[in-house]
Design brief:
Blueprint (H helix, E strand, L loop, with lengths): L1 H6 L8 E4 L4 E5 L16 E3 L22 E8 L9 E6 L5 E6 L2 E6 L6 E4 L9 E8 L31 E6 L2 E3 L4 H4 L4 E9 L4 E12 L5 E11 L4 E6 L3 E3 L4 E10 L13 E9 L2 E10 L4 E4 L2 E4 L2 E2 L2 E7 L13 H13 L5 E4 L5 H10 L3 E4 L9 H18 L5 E5 L7 H14 L6 E3 L28 E4 L3 E2 L19 E2 L1 H16 L12 E5 L28 H9 L11 E3 L10 E8 L3 E6 L2 E6 L6 E8 L4 E7 L5 E8 L6 E7 L5 E2 L5 E9 L12 E8 L1 E5 L40 E3 L4 E8 L4 E9 L2 E11 L3 E2 L2 E2 L27 E2 L2 E6 L18 E2 L5 E4 L5 E4 L7 H6 L2 E10 L3 E6 L5 E2 L1 E6 L2 E7 L7 E4 L6 E8 L4 E2 L28 E9 L2
Parallel strand pairs: 23-24, 23-31, 24-25, 25-26, 26-27, 28-31, 29-30, 40-47
Antiparallel strand pairs: 1-10, 2-3, 2-4, 4-9, 5-8, 5-10, 6-7, 6-9, 11-13, 12-13, 13-17, 14-15, 14-16, 14-18, 18-19, 20-21, 21-22, 32-33, 33-36, 34-35, 34-37, 37-38, 39-41, 41-45, 42-44, 42-46, 43-45, 46-47, 48-49, 50-63, 51-55, 52-63, 53-54, 55-61, 56-60, 56-63, 57-62, 58-59, 58-61
Helix pairs in contact: 3-4, 5-6, 7-8
Length: about 1000
């Protein structure tokens, strides 16, 4: 109805939105006069945006060696006929790092944060006929703000891969004089639209939808305006509509119009249920509609309390991934079309991840909108490397958070705003809270930061590696399990025979087992296990990333998929363990590894499953049954290899078969097979679209051979551009001198010498790994066919033909929208009704405490604050570290060991006589120290033993048959510092904590948190 009204409203100018990505020209360097209209750019390279000028080096060199410097982009365009008082606005979704923008030789302005969208009003600088837009970009690591000489704190060569130039989309908007603004705060000073909901009735599927839009009157007279809003299904069906009160805006005036309505029969956006609506807003001037804007959004209810996260009334323990915001691809960097973002982000949902924590900087709008469509909740940072800067650097972070919130506050998938990649001081947290409260007070998003365990302002927190629990704000691990494992390396018994060396450099078997063990640390303290619970954690990382590497490769291999998004075995382990809001809700079973070994090989076979018991069979013969360790892991040791079929059978608690999984021995590879992946609407000839093509080595029965490492040679003909894939090693002898870009038409660009293999980037020859690899082919701007041929010595070749569809563009403007054919994903269905967990144990209240020494601080051991603790050590003073957390300094203790042991006890008085069945403790130096403890209840021993090390909490079983009221923990001997089984290795190759001595330490008992439980 609105579309018809707009089309029949004579005399009112309407908005026109254009894709401004095609038809740019690029030169790497800093030629004099490139901003001037008469500058000759005919020899420059033609590109379609997004296009990072150094895309060739994605994964080819390390993050530190990525080419940097000056690059110019120019675009020639003509405007269509438009109303005389129209305004022409340009929207850059982001440039890396700095951009200086000129139109027809006239300076428009500068953007310097390298992350967020910005724009300009072009109107006064336009001329009839051809116009020329020129953009000078600068992505140097040492860039400083021109006005302040301040560095850009998040422009960091460890964390933020440097894909330089106009590496995000550009849009052109022609709007009437009285118009709805764009959400570009810093550059245009405007905030756009804000859509939010309240008054949810989840059972009745209704909510009150609020619509706000900022209106600007650039006409020469005052105008009286009302805002009309419609909520529509994506198929156009009207859901609700409303109209605001009239507001009169003076010439040059700006104001916010608001309206609201109750919307019925709503589908609420959820995890794995990317249900979206179009909220269409239009201005009513003299009763006639003008300037329609469509905001695609979704409606969901959130809450954050009791240590838990609630989505649509249901508790959701976080399990997902920490991922770099660049989300890059080999040979492409960030230069991918929207369907490829859906391909990658949708795989996370298929892996049953329910959160992606983008790291360090705000991700692209393309990725944010992709998460909306695929139903992937996300945590959105603003900008940070690591730290809590002062002065201008902190001001810039607050400004970036403000701009990011204004630009992205209508995206329902954002559940968290991250104020820093590391803890920040309380006054800085309050700065960020104020920004959220001003610009997104109703969006249902928590704002916080990593760490911030004791913050009064942060609405969530959680450490990087360790397990935290809380009874108040949710605490979730911001990145756990930082180990690496290349997809190529199955195990030590499969060529190329990779063992874990150094410890973090794992093979797929070991990498998968570590993922299972580490997730169990969080699962054991999930909601339902007490008053204080863990809100979960995100595994680092989703893909093998072109940053933060540790020396073995020039990129990091911590992903559950490789850089081309081919799953590793750990992908299936997570898919098994994570298929539920808190506990697994659907059965899964997966045999890890493969079953192609040399004769005489003896293997331990691992199965990951959600069943109560698993039986392993080989060629129909039972090899026994096992119960799980680490909740999900089933281990079958010393299985002699025998070619054939390996089967795992999962049983429930009643012994009934639930499901099965199989591995089969394959024959030798005899042929190649190609499988294509393209956008749902087909591959388009816009110079940006991609086809992803899988190549497999298969046996005579058409089965992928999991041990194949065959080299494959590719040939491409037709209207396509080879962008290739990635593999371990080098496609050519490693150069030792300065390199230059090999992109056609690109000026030579010096970069640092290669320090590692080039990983076959852009090479037409690369091997399969584990029997498979994936390559990419990019369209040109000429429609037609692309023929891709794959050959390998001794194998039957394969080929695939791609057809690219024409894209209409005129005078540099196009109406083609690559997201228009992309579906929303609804596979998981709406948020289920009912509880997502069962209560497995109940905390016993502690009402008082005493201790052999420092009894006045004994309460700190159960105060729901992991930054405080009790200890029997001598303490002389307390300082605050740079993150605002206490550091207690102990003086040398001259007491005899026996006297210290006598005082190494703490006693808790229970609220009523109880039979405690278990106890959770977070002890000092929990990773490296074991404590010999005796625990008594009213004098009777209920536990005695040596505590294990952990990444946070340990659970001790307590054995007693009678109730009691006084539970005492006594250190019986000096603790033992032990050699860490798995050292955590930083990017510099160093262990992140001093190596333990292996000797007894002083007889000091230190408790951060203690909790006592019963199942009664």
């Amino acid at each position: 109805m609105l579309a018809i009204a707009l089309a029949t409203s004579p005399g009112l100018a309407q908005r026109a939105n254009y894709n401004f990505n095609e038809g740019w020209r690029l030169d790497v360097g800093d030629p004099s006069g490139a901003e001037k209209p008469l500058f000759d750019d005919a020899s420059w390279k033609s590109v379609t945006l997004p296009h990072a000028w150094n895309e060739d080096y994605a994964y080819r060199v390390s993050i530190h060696d990525q080419p940097t410097g000056i690059a110019w982009y120019r675009k020639h365009f003509r405007l269509p006929a438009m109303a005389p008082d129209s305004r022409v606005l340009i929207e850059f979704q982001g440039v890396r790092l700095a951009a200086e923008v000129y139109l027809n030789g006239e300076w428009l302005g500068r953007s310097e944060n390298g992350v967020m969208a910005f724009g300009f009003d072009l109107t006064s600088h336009l001329k009839p006929g051809e116009n020329i837009l020129a953009v000078r970009t600068d992505n140097r690591w040492d860039y400083r703000e021109k006005a302040t000489n301040s560095p850009i704190q998040w422009n960091n060569s460890n964390f933020y891969s440097n894909f330089g130039g106009i590496n995000k989309n550009v849009r052109l908007h022609i709007v009437p004089a009285v118009h709805q603004t764009l959400p570009l705060y810093s550059s245009l000073g405007t905030i756009g639209q804000y859509v939010w909901a309240e008054g949810f009735d989840l059972a009745k599927h209704l909510a009150t939808v609020h619509v706000e839009s900022q209106i600007r009157n650039d006409s020469k007279a005052a105008r009286t305006v009302r805002l009309y809003a419609e909520v529509r299904e994506l198929n156009g069906k009207l859901v609700a509509s409303s109209t605001s009160a009239a507001v009169t805006l003076d010439a040059g005036g700006i104001g916010v119009l608001k309206t609201q309505t109750v919307a019925h029969d709503l589908h609420f956006w959820s995890w794995g249920y990317g249900y979206l609506y179009d909220v269409v807003t239009a201005l009513l001037i003299d009763g006639k509609p003008s300037d329609a804007v469509t905001t695609r959004t979704g409606f969901r209810q959130t809450a954050f309390h009791d240590g838990m996260i609630f989505l649509n009334g249901r508790v959701m323990q976080i399990h997902g991934y920490a991922a770099r915001s660049t989300n890059e691809w080999p040979g492409l960097g960030t230069d991918v079309p929207p369907w490829v973002s859906d391909f990658s982000n949708g795989l996370m949902v298929s892996d049953n991840a329910n959160l992606v924590r983008w790291m360090h900087v705000t991700p692209s709008k393309q990725d944010i909108e992709s998460c909306d469509r695929v139903g992937l909740p996300q945590s959105m940072p603003a900008g940070d490397a690591e730290g809590d800067p002062k002065g201008r650097e902190w001001e810039a972070r607050v400004e970036l958070m403000r701009d990011s919130i204004v630009y992205n506050r209508n995206n329902p998938s954002i559940l968290f705003y991250e104020s820093g990649n590391k803890g920040i001081r309380e006054e800085h947290m309050q700065d960020m809270l104020q920004v959220r409260n001003q610009f997104d007070p109703h969006g249902g998003r928590a704002i916080g930061s990593r760490e911030m365990l004791a913050s009064h302002s942060a609405e969530y927190g959680g450490e990087m590696l360790y397990i935290d629990k809380s009874a108040t704000k949710p605490l979730w691990a911001h990145e756990y399990n930082r180990d690496e494992g290349a997809r190529k390396f199955w195990n030590e018994a499969t060529p190329p025979f990779h063992k874990d060396s150094p410890l973090y450099n794992r093979n797929q078997d070991s990498f998968t087992l570590e993922d299972i063990r580490r997730w169990d640390d969080y699962f054991r303290v999930r909601p339902g296990t007490g008053k204080r619970v863990s809100a979960g954690g995100v595994n680092i990382s989703w893909i093998d990333e072109n940053s933060h590497f540790r020396g073995d490769n020039n990129y990091r291999r911590s992903g559950e998929v490789d850089a081309m998004r081919l799953p590793k075995d750990a992908f299936y382990a997570h898919q098994t363990m994570w298929d539920g809001w808190v506990t697994p809700e659907r059965p899964h079973i997966h045999i890890t590894g493969h079953w192609n070994y040399a004769a005489g090989t003896v293997r331990t076979v691992y199965v990951v499953a959600t069943t109560a018991e698993v039986e392993l069979k080989l060629n129909g013969r039972s090899l026994g049954r096992q119960k799980p360790t680490h909740d999900f892991l089933f281990t079958f040791a010393d299985i002699p290899f025998q070619a054939g079929a390996l089967e795992a059978v999962g049983y429930d608690t009643r012994g009934k078969t639930v499901l099965k999984d199989h591995l089969a021995s394959t024959g030798q590879p005899v042929a190649l097979r190609l499988t294509r992946h393209i956008a749902p609407g087909g591959m388009h000839a816009d110079g940006s679209d991609l086809a992803l093509v899988d190549v497999e080595a298969i046996d005579v029965l058409g089965r992928r051979v999991p041990t194949a490492l065959n080299m494959v040679h590719f040939r491409i003909t037709g209207n396509g551009e080879w962008r290739g894939g990635i593999a371990e090693g080098s496609s050519q002898p490693v150069p030792v001198n300065t390199q230059t870009s090999n992109a056609p038409g690109m000026s030579p660009t010096p970069v640092a010498p290669f320090l590692h293999d080039d990983n076959f980037i852009l090479s037409p020859n690369l091997p399969v790994e584990g029997g498979i690899n994936r390559v990419s082919v990019r369209s040109t701007t000429q429609p037609g066919t692309i023929r891709l041929i794959a050959e390998s010595d001794g194998l039957k070749s394969a080929e695939v033909t791609l057809t690219t569809l024409p894209v209409i563009q005129k005078d540099g403007l196009s109406r083609f929208e690559p997201t228009s054919s992309l579906p929303v994903r609804l596979e998981r269905g709406p948020t289920p009704l009912g509880a997502s967990f069962t209560i497995t144990r109940t905390p016993i209240e502690i009402v008082a405490s005493d201790a052999g020494r420092n009894s006045e601080s004994a309460r700190r051991s159960y105060d729901d604050n992991e930054t405080t603790f009790w200890s029997n050590a001598s303490v002389t003073r307390t300082d605050m570290d740079t993150d605002g957390y206490p550091i207690r300094h102990a003086e040398p203790d001259a007491r005899p060991v026996s006297a210290m042991l006598d005082q190494a006890w703490i006693e808790y008085t229970l609220a009523e006589p109880s039979i405690p069945e278990s106890m959770d403790l977070k002890l000092g130096s929990f990773r490296l120290r074991r404590y010999p403890l005796r625990i008594t209840l009213d004098g009777d021993t209920v536990y005695q033993g040596l505590t294990p090390t952990s990444l946070g909490y340990i659970t001790l079983p307590l054995h007693t048959a009678k109730p009691g009221t006084h539970l005492r923990i006594q250190l019986t001997d000096s603790p033992m510092d032990v050699e860490e089984v798995h050292q955590l290795v930083e990017v510099n190759g160093k262990v992140d904590q001093a190596e333990p001595t292996g000797k007894q330490s002083a007889p000091v008992l230190s408790i951060l948190e203690a909790e006592i439980y019963t199942t009664k």
